[in-house]
Design brief:
single chain; alpha+beta; Pnp Oxidase, Chain A; 7-stranded antiparallel beta sheet; 6-stranded antiparallel beta sheet; 10 helices; elongated; Pyridox_Oxase_N
Amino acid sequence: MIQLEAIRGCLEGSIPAVLATASADGTPNVTYVSQMHYVDPRHVALSFQFFNKTRENILANPRSTALVIDPISGESFHIELLYLRTETEGALFQHMKAKLAGIASHSGMVGVFRLQGADVYRVLGVERIPGPVLPNPQPRRNLLNAMRSASARIAACVDLDGAVDAALDALASDFGIEHSMLLFAEEACGRLYTVASRGYPVTGVGSEIAYGDGVIGVAAQYRTPIRINHMTMEYSYGRAALDGACAHPWPLETQIPFPGLPEPHSQLAVPVLAHGRLLGVLCVESPQDLRFTYDDEDALVALATQLGSAIHALQQQALVESAVTEREARPAAPLAGQALEVRHYAANDSIFIGGDYLIKGVAGAILWCLLQTRAATGREDFSNRELRVSPDLRLPEISDNLEARLILLQRRLDERNAGIRLRKTGRGLFRLEVDMPLDLRDL
């Protein structure tokens, strides 16, 4: 007997499944199915969106047959099904709802698709339909070996900055995935901001996207993986990021280009979680159709789980170490030359250096406080602990994602290359380096 696990590729959705049902008197009905979701080796779930003839038949006669086709080989199968129940809440329902929302956002159909329930069926049997087939290509990588190598990379990291780079480097070298990005969550305002990327013309560090926008935003909103394996029309990360960039109009340009592909044909976004808290989203994409399989999704969920645990542990370690490794701050050396104008807009804590936008939000507030402290006292050495506890800096509440903010700020300053830098000088310690006098303007 053919096992359901062996044909998971037929449930990708790029070729819709066909469902045949019959009414109580035996009248047949055939229709396409929006989603056929693999639940476990003995069950699938179908999306319930409308009360139509199929729904009426299933309630009257619970047996049905589905036709599914492998999108690579063209191999066809019949799946004999028995309707068991409809779930309208819980993990399965939320996952299918999120996937439908991701497809809707990806295709510009937000508000059109609405999942009413997840119809759970028992798989009674799987039968191959005779006919010519194309050969399935060999797997691109041994995913178990790739995961082993990636785990070793992440486990060897001693700070958050290194763990971020290790995860994306592993995706490129171990998994063979050329385009990836990691975004950290800012749950207070329902947004994510890019801290690192690989394979794009621009890094996009500091770019933002709202919960619910595209596959990344939906993965964050529902805390579940979202995988789309075919190109749909009228969608780009840039537009999604811009449409939700700010709740209130802002007269100055503060938009950092998002690093996504202009026409992604395959996308997989996986939430990074730790102890029930959303830390961020790991996203990979490809210009190829059907690039990411169920197996890729399983592997990246495992990678994101380890990354989440590493991030949490490194953040907790930083809380302890920064409290015991402070040293006396040294004054900054006097600087000569033309002053560099740095403007701060209190409305959203945006920072402009020499007229060009740098960063906003909490990261902008941190930089402005550091620059003001340096101007007032001459200091250039600071500690993470000082940022957390000093009332003089008057920072907004940050909790334990301070290290993520500092990584974002450091990378954005390095990318801007305007003569202001943050450099680590020890565990929980860093230095604000400035190459020229500064003209600080608070607006």
